[in-house]
Amino acid sequence: MKIAVAGTGYVGLSIATLLSQHHEVVALDIIKEKVDLINARISPIVDTEITDFLNNKSLNLRATLDKEEAYKDADFVVIAAPTDYDEIKNEFNTKAVESVISDVLSVNPNTTMVIKSTIPVYYTESVNKKFGIDNIFFSPEFLREGLALYDNLYPSRIVVGEKSKRAETFANLLVEGAIKKDIEVIFTNSNEAEAIKLFSNAYLGLRVSYFNEIDTYCEINGLNTKEIIEGMGLDPRVGSHYNNPSFGYGGYCLPKDTKQLLANYAGVPNNIIKAIVESNDTRKDHIANMILKRQPKTVGIYRLTMKTGSDNFRASAIHGVIKRLSDNGVTIIIHEPVLAESQFEGFDVVNNLKDFVLKSDVIVANRITEELFDCKDKVYTRDIFSRD
To answer: What global pTM score does this model have?
Structure first.
């Protein structure tokens, strides 16, 4: 088959890499630098498996800026365009998705389009109606940044939002490219598939928030967070996973997906969904207040990235902490090796670690690493288990 993939972020590039093991894949992007890197077999994102596959696997993959080259004669077009959350309209901005749909219809109107971008509940149904077509379905992704291809190779499940032969064909493409065997494949209608994605991420946000609020209670009252969480985790119904306290949930998906789900709840009674969204701000307030109690003049922010092995700053929880500290008159400096610039959003970047430590009264680290062990007396972190 020929498969086009629109967008080469974490979702698009990982699925393009996966499918190009057995099929011709053309990845479309609007950024020439990314296209050139992919064609040179260099990953434009930090992802160990993608880098390994580009370097060492025989992939039928090319990238292009040309929409016609990508979409012409494609059996499937996978849409992996960004859908950032619009705080003013209180919904996902789906313009990029609809732009892709329009382009595909102008080049290859009879192909099947599969939306991988995160979208609101009822969106696929509405966009098919808007364009007067029936050749779009939704298939959610469940990927971690930095492990996007790994999570395609070993998927927790595959969900396809249509019950049809073409949906089965697409699901089989994902299974064919995976290493994991006996993968659970679920076929639903589009609305249910959209809901599965949003409710799954809202639950992850809930879990992060729950353990963070335990940690807040322990920190204020002098209790041992680690012992309490370990004791809870021995109950198999709770489990010892996804339980390491942090400065809040962040990244590209959880903040926007929980807000979109809350927007979808308009007119529907709820308490928990609203609390998930609000708890993230409460946690950042608490973290900032605990740092301010140390009365620092200069706070060093150790890494902007969400987690180890990622190069993504988007919606990282540390941004909210930085704003709160800065609003209280604290001087902020940043240590972030991913940044080549000397400033980030008006704050000085100090990537010489020794200078960074000397200049900082308090070092704020969402996740602590070995290079901070020699200055632990300066470090403020809530990283209890030294893992993501």
So the answer is: 0.91
* Residue partners of 56: CB distance under 8 A and separation at least 6: none
Strands 61-64, 24-28: pairing kind = parallel
Active site residue 218: no
| Of residues 284, 271, 276, the one with CA closest to residue 256 | 276
pLDDT for residue 252:
72
| 3.40.50.720, 3.90.1150.10, 3.40.50.10490, 3.20.20.150: CATH of 205-380 | 3.40.50.720
Beta-strand pair 158-160/185-187: parallel
Give me the residue spans of the domains in the chain.
2-188, 205-380
pLDDT tens digits along 124-150: 999 999 999 999 999 999 998 889 999
> Interior CA angle at 325 toward 324 and 331, to 5°?
145
Residues in the chain: 388
Q: Does domain 2-188 have CATH number 3.40.50.300?
A: no
Report DSSP letters for 122-164, one per residue. Answer: THHHHHHHHHT---EEE------TT-HHHHHHS-S-EEES--S
The catalytic residue among 147, 204, 253, 322 is 253
Chain centroid to CA 355: 32
How would residue 310 be classed by pLDDT, with cut points 50, 70 and 90? low
pLDDT digits (tens, 9 = 90+) for 325-358: 999 999 999 999 988 899 999 999 999 999 999 9
More confident residue, 35 or 256: 35
Asked, colleague to colleague, whether 2-188 and 205-380 share their fold, the answer is yes
Helix (H) or strand (E) holding 291, with range, is helix 272-292
Whether residue 308 has pLDDT greater than 80 = no
Average pLDDT, the chain: 94
Give the span between the Cα atoms of 46 and 337, in whole angstroms. 13
Rounded Cα distance between 213 and 221, Å, is 12
